[in-house]
């Protein structure tokens, strides 16, 4: 019995030393996360979602590692929001991270250090969401822009399917941001 107890104590001592993270990372990140700028295209404004795009863009700003401001000059923006009338079924928004080289060539990347993100709202599906779900969706897409991947096993706005019906980043989302930056 004493051997079993000793073995159990050793095992329990070793388990906490294993480093386990619930959040998922895409492997990429912004070069300067504390000086990001976002721009909102007129397609988003005319659709009535300017405030949602602005909210999502600033959703992670309470972290001392992230700083975002709005710009009205698209050439200065890191995040660029667009709206599309294309029906993508259950996909209501997406994000593509990319770099632009000195020749102006665009390269999409998820596992590199990048400077730009394109965020698109697909209006047919997005318009069916509640007010809270639209804010959660824009914050979710900015999570991708910042390098977070989808989650399935924890409470996070980075869920791969469905909604929390909570527009604020959760502790797992913050843990991911802290791990990246």
Automatic annotation (TrEMBL):
<dbReference type="InterPro" id="IPR001818">
    <property type="entry name" value="Pept_M10_metallopeptidase"/>
</dbReference>
<dbReference type="GO" id="GO:0006508">
    <property type="term" value="P:proteolysis"/>
</dbReference>
<protein>
    <submittedName>
        <fullName>Matrixin</fullName>
    </submittedName>
</protein>
<dbReference type="GO" id="GO:0004222">
    <property type="term" value="F:metalloendopeptidase activity"/>
</dbReference>
<dbReference type="Pfam" id="PF00413">
    <property type="entry name" value="Peptidase_M10"/>
</dbReference>
<dbReference type="GO" id="GO:0008270">
    <property type="term" value="F:zinc ion binding"/>
</dbReference>
<dbReference type="GO" id="GO:0031012">
    <property type="term" value="C:extracellular matrix"/>
</dbReference>
<dbReference type="InterPro" id="IPR021190">
    <property type="entry name" value="Pept_M10A"/>
</dbReference>
<keyword id="KW-0862">Zinc</keyword>
<keyword id="KW-0479">Metal-binding</keyword>
<keyword id="KW-0378">Hydrolase</keyword>
<dbReference type="InterPro" id="IPR024079">
    <property type="entry name" value="MetalloPept_cat_dom_sf"/>
</dbReference>
<feature type="domain" description="Peptidase M10 metallopeptidase">
    <location>
        <begin position="129"/>
        <end position="181"/>
    </location>
</feature>
<keyword id="KW-0645">Protease</keyword>
């Amino acid at each position: 019995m004493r051997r079993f107890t000793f073995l159990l104590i050793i095992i329990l001592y070793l388990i906490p030393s294993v480093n386990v993270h619930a959040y998922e990372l895409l492997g990429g990140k912004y070069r300067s996360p504390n000086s990001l700028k976002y721009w909102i295209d007129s397609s988003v404004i005319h659709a009535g979602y300017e405030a949602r795009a602005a909210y999502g863009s600033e959703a992670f700003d309470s972290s001392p590692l992230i700083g975002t401001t709005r710009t009205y000059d698209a050439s200065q923006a890191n995040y660029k929001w667009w709206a599309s009338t294309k029906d993508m079924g259950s996909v209501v928004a997406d994000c593509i991270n990319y770099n632009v080289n000195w020749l102006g060539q665009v390269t999409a990347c998820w596992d590199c250090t990048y400077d730009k993100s394109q965020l698109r709202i697909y209006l047919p599906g997005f318009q069916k969401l509640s007010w809270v779900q639209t804010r959660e969706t824009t914050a979710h897409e900015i999570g991708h822009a910042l390098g977070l991947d989808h989650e399935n096993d924890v409470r996070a706005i980075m869920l791969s399917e469905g909604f929390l019906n909570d527009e604020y980043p959760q502790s797992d989302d913050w843990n991911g941001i802290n791990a990246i930056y």
